[in-house]
Structures are given as structure tokens and as C-alpha cells.
Amino acid sequence: METVNNESQWIQDETEKIRSSLLNELHRIEHEVNEQFSSFKNDFELRQPKTLQQPKIKLAIYFFKLLSIKLGFISLRSSNRQMHESRVFIARNSILTDLFETSHIRSIRNVFVAMLLVLVIQVTINDVVHSGRDWILLFPPCIEYKFVSIIAQNSGQLVKFQPLLNNIAILYRNGGGDQVKGILFTGKNATGISGSRNDQEKPPGMIENSNCTFTDIGDGVINRFIHISIVGVAVSQAQWLFIELRDLVQDLATTVQDIFILNSGNGLIICETDGAFTFWNIVCRNNKNGGLIIYDMLSGPLTITESTFDNNRIANVFISNSYAVIVRDSLIINARPKSDDSYGDGFVAMKNKEPIELRTSAVYDNYRSGVSVWGGRLIVINNHLHDHKFDLNYETFDGIPGDFEGSAGNICSDSSPDYICSALSSVLEPPRPISPTH
Q: Which end of the chain is less congested by CB atoms within 10 angstroms, N or C?
């Protein structure tokens, strides 16, 4: 916040310097014009007495000129046709044109134009920095080999960035990057922020994305950056919010927190992360094709903590083909089925490369299963589950059996008085129950 105030103060100081210099120039020109006018007035007063000594002569000259004009007019009417053919029109400048040929008048005009430009710039800066007026930017920039900040200081009324159809609002690549704060991104079929789009491009540098909103847009955010920070981002009515860290991230202090994905196609999609990361306070609610979707992790562990996944269709949390992922201290509720009445699971782990863990979380009211493992191992520890068709489900997938080995301390309040969690499978052999003390 101190940095923001310093930038605002610097802008105001620079504006005040420009205004002062322009006012000084205007005062100098005004002084010169007054001196010339005083000189002209003095010369006129010196000639005035001499002119008043001959009023009769001037009066006679006036009547003589008037008589000549009348006679000329009569003569002109009598020979109008002959003169019409020989008439010559002489071009002359207007009074304003002659005035602007004067150096002092031209200088005054330039000063006023400069003052007007400074006023427009100052009003624009004040609107964005202080009053938060909405501004619509129509042309998406491609930021390459540069670090560029796009910042709206007032998060109450955000700056609107309107990308073109089938385009990218901001594209950082080949080392580009910097801060994107307080921006409202809109535009159907468009991507909000993108890093390098393929392996042939050099990766971008740093991206700090905070207090941004993506609404009614194609892709929320696509990130392939070396250093990233994503804090306070809201996405609604988008196709998805996509985070692809891959092996580019060099800063293990990467921050991803306070992410809200609502009423969109997919929720938060995380893929190809390489390294140990922790994401906080992820909220996925009312999304059509899943809440949190994690796949193809290159290494781990990736920890999701203190998050909420609510009322997402198919599955609230889906993890596939990944190394260690830990979801803990979270709320997983109200998963909805597909239109054909299938799925609707709270937490699904499918064919992962290492055991996935669900710890100290509440799993309630999901349509089909509370927790499912389809091939591979899912470790469930100290969770509370209730109000499902069945709390735990394990299946064999692609020849890989699923199991809950290592699970313990869970409470299933819909079960018998001893709260034993029963795991069900489509195979005929009944599974071994998982008790709270197992």
C-alpha cells in the first residue's frame, strides 16, 4: 500500500511541476503583451491632440468621401454588365488567421492547448487512482520481453479490460510479466491472462495477479510463469480457471490463495506442477463439470488446505494420474450428478502414481459417494462423512485395484452406533470396513 501511495504522490508532483511551468510561461507572455499595449496606447495619446485641432477638415474629408462613394455606386449600377466581365477577386485572410500569425497570440494558444492536455491527463489519473471510474480497454496487448504493470488502485470499481473475440486479453511471453491488479476481465471466447502458449516460446517471467475478476469469459487464467503469485481472484461464468505451473516455476514460495470459481464450466484446473506447493482457501461452487480438477502432476506434494467445494456437478474434487496430492481441513459437500443420474461424488482419486490423501475434512451430502478411489490408493484420515448413498467406494480401474489401505480415524455418522465407515465396491467380495480406530 505504501508503494501505491508513493506512485500516486509522484504522479501528482510531476503534474504540479508541469502546471507551474505552464503558468509561468503564460504570465511572461501576458507581461509582454501588456507592455506592447501600453506602448501603443501612449503613441495614440500623443497623436490625439493634433488630430483634434482639425475637426472641420476631417468633417469635410468625410463628406467628400461619402459623396464619392455615392457617385461611384451610381456609376457602378449604370455599367454593371461591363464591369462584371472584368471583375477581379482578391483573396484575403480572415481576422483570426491574421491574429494567429502574431507570435504572442500563437504562444497563448499553444499554452492553453498544453494546459488542456495536462488537465485531461490529471483527471484521467485521478479517476483511476482515486475515484475508481470504470474504463474499458478494447485492444489486448501482447507484452513481450517486458515487465508491465496493469493496476487499478481502487478495488471497489474495477477497470474493465474488454478483449476481442477469440483473443487473449494479456499475453506475457519470452520473459515478459509483472503485476496485474484490480482488473475486471470480460469477453466471451477470450482468454484472460496467458503465459507462453507452447514449448517453442521462451517462458515468461513473473506474474503477480491480485484482486482481479474474470466474468463471462472463455478461459479465466492460463499461467506458465517462472514466478507466480495469485491472490484474491474471482471467476464467474467462465469456461474454467486454469493454472499450469509445469516445471517452469523456480520460486518454491509461489502463492496461490483466495481463489473463487463460481457458476462456470469447470472449476479450478491444476496440471503439470513440479515441486511442493500449498494452495489456500480455494472455493469452487456451482460449476458444471467439476470443482477442483488435478491431473498429470509431475511431482509433489501439492497441498490444498482450508478450501470449500460445494454443489459442483460430477465431482467436487477429482484427482487423476498424479503424484502426491493432499487435501486437508476442507469442506466437500453437495456434489450433483450428471444429467443421466450418474456420478455425483464428493472426492474422487483415479489411477494415481502415488497415494492421495484426504485429511481432517468434512464430506457431507454428496449425491452418490462421499469418497471414491478408482485404481490406486487413497488414504483417508480423521474425516467426518455422512448423508451419502455410501460413504466410501473403491473400484478396479484399467486392471489397477483401488484400496483405502492406511486409512484411520474417520467417522461415518450415518452408520451403526460405533460409526464404522463401510467401503463398498461393485465386485462380489465384500470389502473390509474401516473403523475409527483402524
A: N
CA dihedral 375, 380, 384, 390 (to 10 degrees): 20
Q: Is the dihedral of CA 111, 116, 121, 125 positive or negative?
A: positive
Characterize 110-120 residue by residue with b for buried, 16 or more Cβ atoms within 10 angstroms of its Cβ, and e for exposed: ebeebeeeeee
Its pTM stands at 0.64
Q: pLDDT tens across 2-47, in order?
A: 454 566 676 677 777 777 776 777 677 767 767 766 776 676 666 6
How buried is 36 (Cβ within 10 angstroms: 0-12 exposed, 13-18 middle, 19+ buried)? exposed
* 212 CA to centre of own chain: 5
Contacts of 311 (CB under 8 A, 6+ apart): 285, 286, 333, 334, 335, 336
